[in-house]
Amino acid sequence: MTDHPITPPPELLKQWEDDWFDEREHADVLLIQAYQAGADAELEACCKLLELSFEWDRSACEDLRAERRPPTSLKQQSLKHLETMERDGYYLPEILQDLRRALEALPDD
After folding, report:
1. What is the per-residue pLDDT across 13-35, written as a single tens digit (0 to 9) for each?
2. Based on the domain organization, do 16 and 63 belong to the same domain?
3. Which are the contacts of 36, defined by CB distance < 8 A and separation ≥ 6?
4. Selection from 1, 3, 69, 19 nearest residue 41 by Cα
5. Nearest Cα to Cα of residue 58 among 39, 44, 37, 38
6. What is the rounded distance in angstroms from the CA atom of residue 29 to the CA atom of residue 1?
7. DSSP character at residue 4
8. Same domain (yes/no): 18, 41
9. Does position 37 have pLDDT exceeding 70, yes or no?
10. pLDDT for 66-109, tens place per residue?
11. Based on the domain organization, do 8 and 59 belong to the same domain?
12. 53 and 81, same structural domain?
């Protein structure tokens, strides 16, 4: 199976392996991450092919990406950030920026 044209980079495999063996992540989460990474790699390969073979402009591929990978809402991003903070016990500055934006978007009581 390693001779397939779309395989995860060794660093990502190592990260998933470490997460599994160190019990930082459950199998279902790792499988979802692998599934998503494969789908993202396939989308990028399709965009690259379209750009090279059919001389599409980049905006057409950006439209395709936006249609196939719509941005998550601020609420969804924030909830995902909170899950990460709960699970890992730490956060990055970008997480706080997103959470701040989400809170500022809420109406005042």
Report:
1. 888 888 888 877 778 888 888 88
2. yes
3. none
4. 69
5. 44
6. 21
7. S
8. yes
9. yes
10. 888 877 888 888 888 888 788 778 777 777 888 888 888 888 87
11. yes
12. no
| Residue 35 identity | Y
Reference 22, options 90, 91, 87, 92; nearest CA is 87
**Residue 85 CB neighbours (<10 A):** 15
Higher pLDDT, 2 or 45: 45
Q: Where are the alpha helices (DSSP H) in the chain?
A: 10-21, 27-53, 58-68, 74-88, 93-105
User: Which residue range is the domain that position 36 belongs to?
Assistant: 1-70
Residue given tokens 């494969």 in the structure block: 38
Rounded Cα gap, residues 36 and 7, in angstroms: 12
